[in-house]
Amino acid sequence: MVDRVLVSLDGAVRDADAPLLYADDIGVLRGDGIFETVLVRAGNACAIEFHLGRLRRSAQALDLPEPEIGRWREAVERAAKEWGTDREGVMRLVLTRGRDSELSGVAEKVTSGDLAAAVPVPTAYVLVLPVPDRVQKARTEGVSVVTLSRGISIDLAQAAPWQLLGAKTLSYASNMAALRFAARMGADDAIFTSTENRVLEGPRSSVVIARDKQLITPPAKNGVLPGVTQRALFAEAEKAGWECVYKSLFTADLLTCDSVWMMSSISLAARVNSLDGLRMSAPDNAQEIIDLVDRGIERAGAIGDW
Ligand code: PLP
Asked: Treating both helix axes as pointing N-terminal to C-terminal, what angle do 48-61 and 228-239 enclose, rounded to 10 degrees?
């Protein structure tokens, strides 16, 4: 059984144990690039059109060359096929600005009129790995969560677009640090809050709360990544009669609602079973929300606007 699949953007299946990157790749040197994490289930890349739409949007935010979506789609299909149908996998689409040595030559190339060579060739590949052990437990038992200040205002995304808050960039070191910090506090995950005490997102998930027949998530303009899983859930839930709303949430809302969910492409719907040490019991409709996410990611259709 394969446990690693690597496909480059030309569609070639590569040796996943052989080196791929140059040491001066700007994605490595500066985290200057973008990615997507996609669930592979039954040989399909779930909600792939949503992910490709967000990849395109992230590329625009970083002034990267427009991704060739058709080639990405083919590489994704190839990688999913190689992975097979017998178990789920974690697929990553990685796109960096390319090699620093090509970028440093840009000024001379522009003055010499060699414009085609002026933009470095982006590094682009699709990698599939096994689903980590923590995922099954998060889906079935939920996660314990601590709230952590992100130390930023909900106005930052609009006041400082260069912070790239709505793009899925490779600069995830502080998100990983937040998860380690949460683990030291005995928690599985974290919810970031703003300086105004508003709910933002998790280090690798969107926060959605359920209250009566409403699902609520903070809007992207508050400086959170627009989530594929949350969007797929909203599309499906609306069909099932839920009212789905983008609205600022205070941390107090997390305690007064029926349930709080960490939504992400791999763990899907992970219910918050304790928040800052306070136990949160499962509502009667927990399974309905889990099923809506499952159906949502399998049906998520056209590429759409991000
Ligand atoms: N917010 C952040 C910061 C994330 O890293 C992620 C996913 O990795 C999400 C939200 C959830 O997005 P998605 O549902 O597309 O996985």
From this structure: 130
Q: What is the CATH number of domain 5-131?
A: 3.30.470.10
Distance spanning both ends of the chain, measured CA to CA: 36
Tokens encoding 207: 């926060």
* Tally of CB atoms within 10 A around 24: 14
* CATH code for the part of the protein at 134-305: 3.20.10.10
Q: Among residues 253, 228, 234, 252, which one has the least CA distance to residue 168?
A: 228
User: Which residue has a Cα nearest atom 2 of ligand 1?
Assistant: 204
Amino acid at 168: K
Q: Hey, whose CA ends up nearest to atom 9 of ligand 1? A: 205
Ordered by start, the domain boundaries in the chain are 5-131, 134-305
**92 neighbors 126 (Cβ within 8 angstroms):** yes
Ligand 1 nearest-atom number relative to CA 231: 14
ipTM of the complex: 0.99
Cβ(217) – ligand 1 distance below 6 Å: no
Q: How does pLDDT run across 146-197, given as a tens digit for each residue?
A: 999 999 999 999 999 999 999 999 999 999 999 999 999 999 999 999 999 9
Contacts 24+ apart (CB under 8 A), 57-60: 57/166, 57/167, 57/306, 58/34, 58/167, 58/168, 58/169, 59/34, 59/95
- pTM score of the predicted model: 0.95
